[in-house]
Amino acid sequence: MRSTDIEAVMQFKNAENWNQTEQDWQFLMDNNPENCLVACDEDVVVGSVTAMNYNNKLAWIGMLLVSKAYRGFGLGKMLLNAILEKLEACESIKLDAVPDMVATYQKWGFVEEYKVCRMTTAKLKHINETRQRMDRDLSDEPMVKLLPITEQTIAEISEVDSHLYGVNRLNLLQFLLNQKNGVCSQIKQDDRVLGYVLGREGSQYSQVGPVLAQSVGNVQMLLSSVFQKLTGKSVVVDVLMNQKEIIDWLYSLGFVDQRRFTRMYLKGTTDQGKLTKQYLTSGPELG
């Protein structure tokens, strides 16, 4: 994929109402140019697929998309085969599959790992009561603080993320921090990071995630802090479905289900980190 191809893939991305921006595509190309592929009909881009490769320990496949006019000709299979060949040396390969694609990926050997619930709100409510409760909770633990994430602290956040997620994602976290949309906060007790939240602006929604933390209470504090800044905006979150308490809390704030994803893996182990500490993902394109 070349930089000049981004405009083309954005056109059929928009036709599918996906949330990615040109910045997202550029990030993927800058970090894994050899794993950003397109299918072309002569000089016309008609399909795409990308992958983030984390030191051959984990690769994340995303952006697998074929223009509507070119579906039914096997281009999706061709793109998937091509990216899997590129990732042959990886210990584990993952992706998020929509329901009608699960059986297709199973034919390639992908195995279901867990479910993800995409939740959205067209206009995020003001959550003053939640904020007040959060402030009371913090006052009960005077050593617990909510702090912004900065260029000086992102490396520390990355260390926590690596421990809980299983691979080093510093480049992704740095990209999200650079979005400057206010979705960046960490919670600390003494000098220990208990959790963090990052996010980015999409073409349709503000995407909040990833969120990794030690407890549900930590997550509510983190999300309350960033939701204050996103009041009135359209917001999307991708929540691990085992985190039922957080899902119920999001319902109470006006979020609704949009769709479900199945996280699937190929090769290696499913134990890439500590799933009980993972709450929100970065989205199906970033993992």
Walkthrough of the structure:
- The protein is built from nine helices and twelve strands.
- It is an alpha+beta fold and 287 residues long.
- Strands 1, 2, 3, 4, 5, 6, 7, 8, 9, 10, 11 and 12 form a twelve-stranded mixed sheet that branches.
- It is globular, with a radius of gyration of 19 Å.
Brief summary:
The chain is built from nine helices and twelve strands.
Tell the overall outline.
globular
The average pLDDT score comes to 90
Number of E-type strands: 12
Helical amount: 25-40%
**Rg, nearest Å:** 19 Å
Write the layout of secondary structure elements.
Blueprint: H1 6-15, H2 22-31, E1 36-41, E2 44-54, E3 58-66, H3 75-86, E4 93-97, H4 102-107, E5 111-121, H5 128-140, E6 144-148, H6 154-165, H7 170-177, E7 184-189, E8 192-201, E9 206-213, H8 216-229, E10 235-240, H9 244-252, E11 256-266, E12 278-280
Parallel strand pairs: 3-4, 9-10
Antiparallel strand pairs: 1-2, 2-3, 4-11, 5-10, 5-11, 6-7, 7-8, 8-9, 9-12
Helix pairs in contact: 5-8, 6-7
